[in-house]
Write a structure and sequence with these properties.
The chain is an alpha/beta fold. The protein has 3 domains: about 170 residues, 3-Layer(aba) Sandwich (Rossmann fold), CATH 3.40.50.300; about 80 residues, Orthogonal Bundle (Helicase, Ruva Protein, domain 3); about 90 residues, Winged helix-like DNA-binding domain superfamily/Winged helix DNA-binding domain (Arc Repressor Mutant, subunit A). It has a 5-stranded parallel β-sheet, sandwiched between helices. A 3-stranded antiparallel β-sheet has the order 6-8-7. The longest helix has 22 residues. The radius of gyration is 25 Å and the shape is globular. The two termini are about 35 Å apart.
Length: about 375
């Protein structure tokens, strides 16, 4: 009996390498981010002169090239330092993986060759072990460490600003913080902010033309020649430009369209496959989010779905009435409903807009669904 994988391996694919379509892929150069990379380099050049660079914070929405630019600058710095009499290390920390100060410092110790256990020590012991690494070595050379904290707001929200205090108060340590949110500094206390004194670099969203340049380069690396129909790159770019210039979304669209072409045994990605890819991505995203929501939030979405299908204007008052109907006696209070609305808005499933009803009539919230009606219905009622 033949192995099922043998048959799949024999099947021809329009892909020659999928990895360049992954947002974590680091190309040889980053289109339309030279200005931002140069800004990082202007601060990091201090390390090549044996000085500790200033802290940097880079902001920008998802898919604007922040992580790629930081990693690109890292590789360039390490390459430039190879022939100089300096000792420079750059460590990348994704704060979704390391969510406490203890975990981050322990990980840094381990990466720098210090044998520190993952648990069992006090935080003070771990910090002392970390700081001991930066005492001059036998050759009298200082080690300069740059720590990249990606999605730093997640760490600060969960564990406070202790990590920034520790790193900024450690000799020869510089930090580069990456955040999707301009207001992440609300989590930083004044005493830490005063020692941070960071340089800020903003990453603007890509426009459709810039996204097309990115996709053009990646598609050459990913697909066999002639596999991408004329207009596909343009369509993916235009759709992603509407999603606030998100390059990740553009890459995801192109890859999914390619996978659909393979499923259809087509040697060419047609524009219609891009539209199918959009629906598939949206369904997967909404489905994944809804599956992890608590039952009460799912009921709020059921109420929004019901009102949307009835073409009703969804005010918070109307929503609460319908939510109570859907919940059949197991409902939370009006104030708690607002927490649910805020959380669903943060997830991008709904939007809210406060409008004035005119003199003496006050203000009200209007709630709108931000995903496709059929996608939400299928996710809420899969069977």
């Amino acid at each position: 009996m033949s192995n099922i994988f043998d048959k799949l391996e024999e099947k021809e694919s329009i892909f020659k390498d999928k990895s360049p379509l992954d947002h974590r892929f680091l190309p040889e150069h980053l289109p339309h981010r030279n200005e931002q990379i140069t800004s990082i380099a202007k601060y990091w050049i201090e390390a090549l002169n044996n000085n500790t660079p200033s802290p940097i914070t880079i902001y920008g929405k998802t898919g604007t090239g922040k992580t790629a630019a930081a990693k690109f600058a890292k590789e360039q710095l390490l390459e430039a330092s190879a022939n100089k009499n300096v000792s420079i290390k750059v460590e990348y920390i994704r704060c979704t993986d390391f969510t406490t100060e203890y975990q981050v410092i322990t990980h840094l110790c381990q990466k720098l060759g210090r044998d520190v256990p993952d648990r069992g020590w006090t935080k003070a012991e771990v910090i002392k072990a970390f700081r001991d690494i930066f005492k001059k070595n036998v050759f009298g050379r200082n080690l300069i460490l740059i720590v990249i904290l990606d999605e730093v707001d997640i760490l600060l929200e969960k564990d406070g600003d202790g990590i920034l205090y520790t790193l900024t108060r450690t000799d020869n340590v510089a930090i580069l913080s990456i955040s999707n949110f301009l207001d992440f500094k609300q989590y930083i206390k004044p005493r830490v902010a005063s020692s941070l004194r960071d340089k800020e670099i903003v990453f603007p969203p890509y426009n459709a033309e810039q996204l097309a340049d990115i996709l053009q380069e990646r598609s050459k690396l990913s697909f066999v020649e002639g596999a991408v129909d004329e207009g596909v790159i343009r369509l993916c770019s235009a759709m992603a430009a509407k999603e606030e210039g998100d390059a990740r979304y553009a890459l995801d669209l192109l890859q999914t369209a390619g996978e659909i072409a393979d499923e259809k045994d087509s040697k060419i990605i047609h524009s219609s496959y891009v539209k199918e890819a959009k629906d598939r991505i949206e369904y997967n995203k909404v489905n994944e989010v809804i599956m992890t929501l608590p039952a009460q939030q799912q009921r709020v979405l059921e109420a929004i779905l019901k009102l949307t299908k009835e073409n009703e204007e969804i005010t918070s008052g109307k929503l609460f009435e319908t939510y109570e109907e859907v919940s059949k006696g197991d409902a939370v209070g009006y104030r708690r409903l607002f927490d649910f609305i805020n959380e669903l808005e943060m997830l991008g499933i709904i939007s809210t807009n406060t409008i004035s009803r005119g003199r003496g009539k006050g203000r009200t919230n209007i709630i709108k669904l931000q995903c496709d009606l059929d996608v939400l219905e299928t996710a809420l009622y899969p069977f």
